[in-house]
Amino acid sequence: MEMNQRAPRRRHGFGPRHASAAGIAPPRGGSSLPRRTVQELASSGGISVLVIDDEPDMRELISVSLPSSEFEVVMAEGGRAAVALLATRRFDVAITDLKSQDAHGMETVSVLRQMDPDMEVIVATGFVNAETARACMRYGAYDYIRKPYDIEELRHVLLRAVEKRRLRSLVPLYEVSCALLSLRTRAEVLAHLGELALDLVPHQAFRLLLPDPDTGVLHLCSPPDGLELPLEALRGMALRAIERQEPVSVTHAAKEWPFSPVSRLGAAIAYPLQAGTAPAGSLILMRGIAQPAFSVSELQRGNLFCAQLALALETARLNSEMDARLKEMLAARGEMVKAEKLATAGKLAAGLTHELSNPLAFTKASLQALTGYSRNVKTLSSVTRDVAHELASRGEPRLMELARRLLAVTGSEAQAVIQDSADAAEDAVDGIRRVEGLLSELRTLSGDCPVVQFEQMDVTPLLQVWKEKEHLPRPIRVDAPNAVIAHVGRKELESSLTRLVTFLCEMPLERPGASREPVVLRAGHDKDRPAIWLEDPLLVLSEERRSDIFDARIQEDSHGGRTMRLNLSLALAYQILRRMGADLAVLPAPSGGSTFRLLLPGMG
């Protein structure tokens, strides 16, 4: 059954629902409680029969002749009396005389069917022909029977009528059950609850009360409909139904009517919801002041519906738990994949570091020596120029020639070569240091690293430092007025923050003037844990991109002439922080961008 294409078969709202016919109309007064409960029906097996006949002898004949163990017979002397009775209770089947003093029998059939579409109507007449039979069916009668009555024939007609009613009621119950059990989430169940219940039990309003998972207190879960009802009254009625484990029905005429301030309500019924052996709440259906009380068959159908509803809610809860577990499993799987990839890279880096340690150390030492030699040569060149000037000042031809040659050797071109050599050596040493640092960080991912030394520290100074840094591509705004104490490794946290801030500041910007929008660094607490937030209003990421942003990836390096490079910055920061017991995640920011949220280990 397609839920989004279904429409309620009846209309919600308070007001008259039955049209009048032939001067017979449903009463607009109050209602009273049904005479029999579901338990009484189950124990007696009785079928309620309304006999409408203006002849007392005929009414008495049916009352006396039908077995009391099978039938409960209630008599009405005419159509108007029958309508008054139906305003107070419902019947399984009605027998009406085709001709009565206050109305024609066919008109009575029409009104009875309007008031209770579920009730089967049998027409009794002394003159039966084909046209009479067709007219009976046209007005909604189930069958007709000849007068005077053959009691055995009447009994069989009544039993067939009730069986037809029972079978007919199973169809909507089956459809509603299929639709209800096809809903996967609690939100879907609540969204379609009123519509589905309306298909089985006509009502003008409903309230669903479910227990709080922690306290067990019943709270409202139904959508608002503009009808203000006292919550305590709803809870009291629901608790009575739960305690009795059976429906509780009340009308405005009853002493225990709980909704006295509300003038538009005429009847209410509370069904208990049961999930296994534990109470699962209550569904309360309500009718307007001009509507009849709930019938026995509605008690039964509502009970069956609420059993399906409790099962649907329990299934939705299990689906929700299963979805949450599945998300946890997928997240754990993602973490394992990330850790495995980075651990593999770390092991490779550890092997490379071992193999390259001697060549790197030798090269680094040689370059450092070359840097020292460059400084010495530069000093020697400066002294040589001073000597040349001194020799030239003495005026002797031989000394002046020597001075000229010395100045030629130590000229500006030579000075530039010496300076370039020194700069190249320093850059090479710096490059080797960076390679050593990268290999060292990668080695930590393989587990081949010393244990992090934790300390209690205020993390806000690590953020304040960024306000003092110059020549950054983006401005930094720091919001950390109070101390935030965490139990972390200082060096690891500092290096990870550096990687995160650098990533945000160096991100390519396409919008003009975007470089003036600051990256915001904040410190505080999130659910009693020390936390750091790095918010960038320009970093707009899809959900999929947020989930894989900490994966090691190949990306285009626009600063290097559109070359490709391996970006390990965020992956290293993520893994180092995780090893420290911190939790790093990317969340949507209120600004429309993204926020890196870092939850740190606390003092506990």
Automatic annotation (TrEMBL):
Residues 48-162 form the Response regulatory domain. Keywords: Phosphoprotein. The modification 4-aspartylphosphate is found at residue 97. InterPro entries: Bact_response_regulator, CheY-like_superfamily, GAF-like_dom_sf, HATPase_C_sf, Sig_transdc_resp-reg_receiver. Residues 1-35 are annotated as: Disordered. PANTHER family: RESPONSE REGULATORY DOMAIN-CONTAINING PROTEIN, STRESS RESPONSE REGULATOR PROTEIN 1. This is Response regulator receiver domain-containing protein. It comes from Stigmatella erecta. The lineage of its organism: Bacteria, Pseudomonadati, Myxococcota, Myxococcia, Myxococcales.
